[in-house]
Amino acid sequence: MVKVRKTSKPPPDGWDLIEPTLDELEAKMREAELAPHDGKRKVETLWPIFKIHHQKSRYIYDLYYKRKTINKELYDYCLKQSIGDKNLIAQWKKQGYENLCCLRCIQPRDTNFNKKCICRVPKEKLEEGKVVECVHCGCRGCSG
Questions:
Q1: pLDDT tens string 24-41
Q2: pLDDT tens digit string along 39-64?
Q3: 6 in a domain, yes or no?
Q4: Which residues of 65-98 are buried (b: 16+ CB within 10 A; e: fewer)?
Q5: How far apart are CA 94 and CA 91, in angstroms?
Q6: How far is the C-alpha of 51 from the C-alpha of 105, rounded, in Å?
Q7: pTM of the predicted model, to two decimals?
Q8: What's the N-to-C CA distance of the chain in angstroms?
Q9: Is residue 5 included in any domain, yes or no?
Q10: 141, 107 in Cβ contact below 8 A?
């Protein structure tokens, strides 16, 4: 079950429609957290967690902005309960960042040369056949 903070009022209308999917993603998150990480690099152990976090936020974003199946009250409730990442969703609204994988990929302080992450470089500008993998989240290219 999705962690919902104790509040005096119940979740808004429509919660029962999205709760099963969020519960499923929460179960996947628990599996990823408890999965053995023998033989993996330290950063590789966090990649599944970043991926599931992205999926939860994208699910809420798509329901509100793309499909328009949930109302503003439920959308705000999900963000206040930290079910979706409001900062990541805010970046998805900007042009050029529609497919952003995580916020660390656009922070210059986390890279070697104070630039954007390698996964933000368009695939046409990379060498042919070269597989690019983000160190932070394992993304293979989210620039579009």
A1: 999 999 999 999 988 988
A2: 988 888 999 999 999 999 999 999 99
A3: no
A4: eeeeebeeebbebbbeeebbbeebbebbeeeebe
A5: 5
A6: 13
A7: 0.88
A8: 34
A9: no
A10: no
